[in-house]
Amino acid sequence: MILVDTNLLVYATFADAPEHSRARAWIDEKLGGQEGIVLCWPVLYAFVRLVTSARIFGAHALGVAEGWQSAAAYLAQPGVRIVVAGGGHATVAAELAATPGLRSEDVPDVELAALAIEHGLVLASHDHGFRRFAALRFVDPLSG
To answer: Which member of 92, 102, 113, 137 lies 3.0 to 4.6 Å from 106 by CB, making a disulfide possible if both were Cys?
Structure first.
């Protein structure tokens, strides 16, 4: 199964994003298939934080209630499963945190990569920075 990163949800939500049609088509294909997608709370909260940011989206930013409704619409899909950190999460996160060159803004990436590894998932993201984590299975559904 595939854990979906925040950026793919954001691209799929905003029609003005250059990646919109590819992200929307990919998510729709996964939701319509037998495999579905996996989400986690850090991704959903980051999604709401980003789509409601007037600094990022200006007049197109959603209100917080509307942003949460968009997140809830993903959660309501029959092909969506939620994962949370389990007993092995701290060990995996500690190993990932030892990756050379990480900075404070990389901590959310460590959390997401640890969730994917802990649950045996592939992480889907358009952020190629995840490739620095050797133990992480990664795919960019918007590339080539």
So the answer is: 102
Give ∠ CA 78-80-83 in degrees, rounded to 5.
140
- Strand pairing of 138-139 and 80-83? unpaired
Residue 143 placed within a domain: no
Please state, in angstroms and rounded to a whole number, the distance separating the CA atoms of residues 71 and 123. Answer: 19
Residue 24's alpha-carbon distances to 30, 51, 106, 128, 141, in angstroms, are 10, 15, 26, 19, 11
If one counts the domains in the chain, the total is 1
Which of 88, 77, 86 minimizes the C-alpha distance to 39? 77
**pLDDT 10s digits, 10-69:** 999 999 899 999 999 999 999 988 889 999 999 999 999 999 999 999 999 999 999 999
Element (H, E) at 132: none
Whether residue 144 lies inside any domain: the answer is no
Count of residues making up the chain: 144
Tell me the two tokens of residue 91. Answer: 């060990």
Domain span at residue 62 reads 2-138
Q: What is the CATH number of the domain that holds 74?
A: 3.40.50.1010
Q: Please state the pTM of the whole predicted model.
A: 0.95
